[in-house]
Amino acid sequence: MLSVTAGSCKNQEKLTIYNWSYYTPDSVIKKFEKEYGVKVVYDEFASNEEMYAKLKTGSSGYDIVFPSGDYVSIMIHQGMFEKIDKSKLSNLGNIDPMVLKKATYDPAMEYSIPYYWGAAGIVVNTSKVPNFEKSWSIFARSDLRGRMTMLDDMREVMGDALVHLGYSVNSKNPAEIEAATNLVNNFWKPNLTKFDAESFGKGYANGEFWVVQGYPEVVFEEITENEQLMKTTVFFIPPEGGPAYIDSMCILKGSKRVDLAHKFIDFIHRPEIYAEFCDEFGFPATVNVPARQHKTGPSWYEIDELAVTELKDDLGDALNLYNDAWFNIIRAGN
Questions:
Q1: Exposed, middle or buried: residue 122 (CB in 10 Å: 0-12, 13-18, 19+)?
Q2: 238: which of 7, 58, 183, 278 is 20 to 30 A away, CA to CA?
Q3: In 199-280, where do the E strands start and end?
Q4: Ramachandran assignment for 119, one of left (phi > 0), alpha (psi -120 to 50 degrees), beta (any other)
Q5: What is the SS3 assignment for 213?
Q6: Cα separation of 199 and 217, whole Å?
Q7: Whose CA is closest to 237, among 299, 315, 147?
Q8: pLDDT tens per residue across all 334 residues of the chain
């Protein structure tokens, strides 16, 4: 686990967080620790599947977890969260009603509080790839073979393939899912170095990869000191669409620090704190409305660009179709 400490007292209260990589600034953690005199222990995951598998196999001790909406739905139905006590949250009014309208898995915030609404896209090194179409079809380019990666994330890759074929990222149609599987296997995967949700940012930064599907904050965090690469790097969400996510803060069932967890959630949604989070990673303030007035830095994309995306839903039993498809994709050619 990663940890940031506010002091050395052995009896200091701890809050344990299980969150995505590159997702909460150290500066925000330190401010929370200082204000409340606590220690935050921060552990990271690279995909919803990794997070869910770890929690289901009995890993305990975490207080707050940050799943995406489809997994929030799954985990609510499986009784994995404590109920939110909204009387302990003074900043809920800062959350954009449009985001809550999209959060159909828990619109009343009974078990989850939205953290960030965003989408993965494509990062391109224009010094290596000066001419390209802003489309998922870039991964079919054999001239870039061995210089590209896509996420090791079933719903993201399958969602990209589905929308490229004109289907929904939440399709439950076996024929459409099969067509998307064939697209990935026969036209995209042969040109990829690998499916990678952990080190694509570092690989892009060191010049190993020229085109990566992923989250812009991961890449820009790695290249921020490389002025030349910053100038030649672009990020875009393909106009044809793709999967979007709303990641939420949820308190895990059995947490021994429920009150402190509520304090952290409310702290995040202070406008100045939320703006600090967004500025650190080049995010637009998609969830917290007043934070938009506190932002001082640029964003790698604008809120309007998310209009073409589609939130990933809980697929229910149809998730098995995706699991089978992903197994075939990972196994193919290996």
A1: buried
A2: 278
A3: 211-214, 233-236, 242-251
A4: beta
A5: strand
A6: 13
A7: 299
A8: 444 444 444 678 999 999 998 899 999 999 999 999 999 999 999 889 999 999 998 767 899 999 999 999 999 999 999 999 999 999 999 999 999 999 999 999 999 999 999 999 999 999 999 999 999 999 999 999 999 999 999 999 999 999 999 999 999 999 999 999 999 999 999 999 999 988 999 999 999 999 999 999 899 989 989 999 999 999 999 999 999 999 999 999 999 999 999 999 999 999 999 999 999 999 999 999 999 999 999 999 999 999 999 999 889 999 999 999 999 998 876 5
Which sequence spans correspond to the domains of the chain? 2-117+246-301, 119-243+310-331
CATH class for the region spanning 2-117+246-301: alpha beta
Helix (H, G, I), strand (E, B) or coil at 312: coil
Tokens, residue 332: 């193919």
CA–CA dist 294, 279 (Å, integer): 9
The half-sphere exposure of 21 on its side-chain side, counting CA atoms within 13 A, is 18
Asked whether the domain spanning 119-243+310-331 has the same topology as the one spanning 2-117+246-301, the reply is yes
**DSSP states along 59-77:** -----EE--BHHHHHHHHH
The domain made up of 119-243+310-331 is a member of CATH 3.40.190.10 = yes
- Burial of residue 182, with CB atoms counted within 10 A of its CB: 0-12 exposed, 13-18 middle, 19 or more buried: middle
Angle at 36 between CA 35 and CA 38, to 5 degrees: 120
Q: What DSSP letter does each residue of 104-155 carry, written as one string?
A: TTSTT-SS-EEEEEEE-EEEEETTT--S--SSGGGGG-GGGTTSEEE-S-HH
Q: Is 217 helix (H, G, I), strand (E, B) or coil?
A: helix
Which residue, among 64, 62, 61, 65, has the nearest Cα to 48 in the 3D structure? 65
Are 189 and 332 in contact, with CB atoms under 8 Å apart? yes
